[in-house]
Design goal:
28% strand, 2 helices, two-stranded antiparallel ribbon, alpha+beta, SH3 type barrels, 7 strands
Protein backbone atom coordinates (compact mmCIF):
# COMPACT_ATOMS: atom_id res chain seq x y z
CA UNK A 1 0.00 0.00 0.00
CA UNK A 2 1.52 3.31 -1.06
CA UNK A 3 0.94 6.44 0.98
CA UNK A 4 0.73 9.74 -0.89
CA UNK A 5 0.91 13.24 0.57
CA UNK A 6 -0.36 16.29 -1.22
CA UNK A 7 1.37 19.57 -0.46
CA UNK A 8 -0.22 22.81 -1.60
CA UNK A 9 1.02 26.37 -1.50
CA UNK A 10 -1.18 28.62 0.58
CA UNK A 11 -0.43 32.08 -0.81
CA UNK A 12 -0.10 31.60 -4.51
CA UNK A 13 -2.13 32.95 -7.42
CA UNK A 14 -1.77 29.74 -9.38
CA UNK A 15 -2.90 26.56 -7.71
CA UNK A 16 0.16 24.37 -7.59
CA UNK A 17 0.19 20.99 -5.93
CA UNK A 18 3.02 18.58 -5.44
CA UNK A 19 2.55 14.87 -4.80
CA UNK A 20 5.20 13.20 -2.65
CA UNK A 21 5.31 9.54 -1.77
CA UNK A 22 5.71 8.64 1.89
CA UNK A 23 8.63 6.40 0.86
CA UNK A 24 10.51 9.48 -0.42
CA UNK A 25 10.07 11.25 2.95
CA UNK A 26 11.30 8.16 4.82
CA UNK A 27 14.35 8.03 2.54
CA UNK A 28 15.15 11.68 3.30
CA UNK A 29 14.91 11.04 7.06
CA UNK A 30 17.18 8.00 6.76
CA UNK A 31 19.75 10.04 4.83
CA UNK A 32 19.81 12.69 7.57
CA UNK A 33 20.18 10.03 10.27
CA UNK A 34 22.97 8.32 8.31
CA UNK A 35 24.86 11.63 7.96
CA UNK A 36 24.64 12.26 11.70
CA UNK A 37 25.81 8.72 12.46
CA UNK A 38 28.77 9.10 10.08
CA UNK A 39 30.05 12.20 11.91
CA UNK A 40 29.85 11.58 15.68
CA UNK A 41 31.54 14.95 16.45
CA UNK A 42 28.81 16.91 14.70
CA UNK A 43 26.75 19.14 16.96
CA UNK A 44 23.17 18.02 17.43
CA UNK A 45 20.62 20.10 15.60
CA UNK A 46 18.33 22.13 17.88
CA UNK A 47 14.82 22.45 16.55
CA UNK A 48 13.72 25.32 18.84
CA UNK A 49 16.58 27.07 20.65
CA UNK A 50 14.20 29.54 22.35
CA UNK A 51 12.15 26.75 23.95
CA UNK A 52 14.53 26.60 26.92
CA UNK A 53 13.80 30.17 27.99
CA UNK A 54 10.08 29.66 27.67
CA UNK A 55 10.24 26.57 29.85
CA UNK A 56 12.28 28.39 32.51
CA UNK A 57 9.80 31.26 32.59
CA UNK A 58 6.89 28.80 32.89
CA UNK A 59 8.59 26.92 35.75
CA UNK A 60 9.33 30.23 37.48
CA UNK A 61 5.67 31.24 37.25
CA UNK A 62 4.65 27.90 38.74
CA UNK A 63 6.96 28.51 41.73
CA UNK A 64 5.50 32.00 42.26
CA UNK A 65 1.95 30.61 42.28
CA UNK A 66 2.95 27.81 44.66
CA UNK A 67 4.57 30.35 47.01
CA UNK A 68 1.37 32.35 47.25
CA UNK A 69 -0.75 29.25 47.72
CA UNK A 70 1.43 27.40 50.21
CA UNK A 71 3.16 30.09 52.25
CA UNK A 72 1.49 33.47 51.86
CA UNK A 73 -2.12 32.35 52.47
CA UNK A 74 -1.59 30.46 55.75
CA UNK A 75 0.75 33.17 57.02
CA UNK A 76 -1.91 35.82 56.38
CA UNK A 77 -4.59 33.73 58.14
CA UNK A 78 -2.27 33.25 61.14
CA UNK A 79 -1.73 37.01 61.37
CA UNK A 80 -5.51 37.58 61.30
CA UNK A 81 -5.97 34.94 64.06
CA UNK A 82 -3.32 36.59 66.25
CA UNK A 83 -4.89 40.02 65.73
CA UNK A 84 -8.34 38.66 66.67
CA UNK A 85 -6.99 37.01 69.86
CA UNK A 86 -5.16 40.20 70.87
CA UNK A 87 -8.35 42.21 70.48
CA UNK A 88 -10.37 39.90 72.80
CA UNK A 89 -11.64 41.49 75.99
CA UNK A 90 -13.90 40.56 78.85
CA UNK A 91 -17.58 39.80 77.99
CA UNK A 92 -16.88 39.05 74.31
CA UNK A 93 -18.87 36.10 72.95
CA UNK A 94 -16.67 33.61 71.07
CA UNK A 95 -16.90 30.26 69.35
CA UNK A 96 -14.06 27.77 69.73
CA UNK A 97 -12.75 25.50 67.00
CA UNK A 98 -14.59 22.68 68.78
CA UNK A 99 -17.92 24.48 68.42
CA UNK A 100 -18.26 25.58 72.06
CA UNK A 101 -19.83 28.99 72.61
CA UNK A 102 -18.80 31.02 75.61
CA UNK A 103 -18.22 34.41 77.14
CA UNK A 104 -14.66 35.59 77.76
CA UNK A 105 -13.87 36.11 81.45
CA UNK A 106 -10.11 36.45 81.38
CA UNK A 107 -7.45 36.75 78.66
CA UNK A 108 -3.75 36.03 79.14
CA UNK A 109 -0.90 35.17 76.76
CA UNK A 110 -1.14 31.41 77.31
CA UNK A 111 -4.85 30.80 78.03
CA UNK A 112 -8.34 32.24 77.81
CA UNK A 113 -11.03 31.56 80.42
CA UNK A 114 -14.54 31.09 79.02
CA UNK A 115 -17.84 30.91 80.87
CA UNK A 116 -19.95 28.38 78.96
CA UNK A 117 -22.98 27.87 81.24
CA UNK A 118 -24.74 30.71 83.05
CA UNK A 119 -26.85 28.57 85.37
CA UNK A 120 -24.03 26.38 86.77
CA UNK A 121 -21.29 28.99 86.33
CA UNK A 122 -19.22 26.48 84.31
CA UNK A 123 -15.83 27.77 83.15
CA UNK A 124 -13.19 26.29 80.88
CA UNK A 125 -9.69 27.37 79.99
CA UNK A 126 -8.60 27.15 76.36
CA UNK A 127 -5.52 28.00 74.33
CA UNK A 128 -5.69 31.28 72.42
CA UNK A 129 -5.34 29.38 69.14
CA UNK A 130 -8.60 27.51 69.90
CA UNK A 131 -10.74 30.62 69.34
CA UNK A 132 -12.47 30.30 65.97
CA UNK A 133 -14.38 33.57 65.77
CA UNK A 134 -15.79 36.41 67.80
CA UNK A 135 -19.59 36.40 67.65
CA UNK A 136 -20.24 39.90 69.00
CA UNK A 137 -18.29 42.48 70.92
Amino acid sequence: MNNYWILAQAESNTPSQEVIKADDINAQEQTTTTQQAADPNAAPVKKNPQGGWQQLIFIGLIFVVLYFMMFRGPKKRQQQQNQMVKSLKKNDRVQTIGGIFGTVLDVSDTEITLKIDESNNTKIKIAPSAVNRVINS
